[in-house]
Amino acid sequence: MLGTASSASSHDHAAVNSQLARILESPHFRNSKRSQALLRFILESALTGDHTPLKERSIGAAVFGREIAYDTAQDPIVRNAAIEVRKRLAQYYLEPEHAGELRIDIPIGSYIPSFRIESPAAEPIKQAAPALANAHKWMLAAVVLALIGIAATYLWTIRRTPASELDAFWDTMFRDGKTIQICIGQPTRLYRFTGPRIEELNQLLGAPSGSDRDTTHLSISPAELTWVAPEYLFLRDALSGFNVASWLQAKGRSYQLTSVTATNYSQLRRVPLVAIGAFNNQWAMRVNAELRFAFSRRSDGGVLYDSIDDRRNPNATQWRVAQPVTGTMTEDYAIVTHVFDPATENTVISAAGIETYGTLAASEFITRPEYVGAALRAAPKDWSRKNVQFVLGTKIIDGAPGPPRVLAAHFW
Q1: CA-based nearest residue to 238, from 272, 194, 277, 273
Q2: Per-domain residue ranges of the chain
């Protein structure tokens, strides 16, 4: 059993510091300087017995270099970092080898840590041996109870054990039974003609380019254009959302299809998210922005490219598509990300291609067991407890993406 939670002042400081050192050296904290700094500051402040520094604004100034009067509502860096620390602590204590250690918690809504120590289970009171005449009766009852326990365990295991690697990949999205939000990216630059010249402009610019189409001296004023991007979806993005919705429906899971313009942060605080699309989906771009594999737009030799960057190999340029896309594309690239997002405290899956061909291939990857199964053959044994990113490539043949190929993977 766990002992009663208590404050830092009631614990031996050496024991707390020793436990802090173990935690910071663990794989869960070793590579996160931000989480290390916040946890160290919270514990060191708590050990002094003075909780004055353990206020959001004070922590922001002391740990993250903010001005002491900064607006915490506009800059939630401390809250986001605390969410990440709580998640990493939970992962640390989930491992059996840490079960008997001093437990450090940061309660939600506070930055004052609490401490608990595992209490040894009480020794069962030894009963006097039953009379020989009743021995068979007790043995039969024990066997029946044991069989019931085995059956219950077996049924629970069947219920909780994912049927395939793909089920395991989605398991954290299903755990709380929440409705999953599928957010589809939309065009960012799409306009419709308006005003008295609608027909003239439609006929002129709607015709195929050629010798009979002279736009050299054409002038269009802003008043003749209306932004209509929120009304439309790219076809392959819509098909990607349909792929995910069909998978969820087959699994008996509830979902909601929405567009990126109809999705806001407060909604994502309540539900897991599947983000479809990259440059046309701000939520996919945000969740990938600080990870190893991320999207970027850069110029090289006077040519603009949309790219997937590898922060461990920043000079690599193999995953990119020239912009604007001209002629027939032959290959596209995508990132599939499965991550716990500390900003929303929910799991996010992102299926995002540089172009919509890659997005469609990514949606097939996350809904087809043969693709995920093949990708996870070389994964760490505990991959289902980790965040993961896959970089995918897909050949484009006759205007359709081919099977997704895994080009790189990262687990953490």
Answers
A1: 277
A2: 8-116, 166-187+232-411
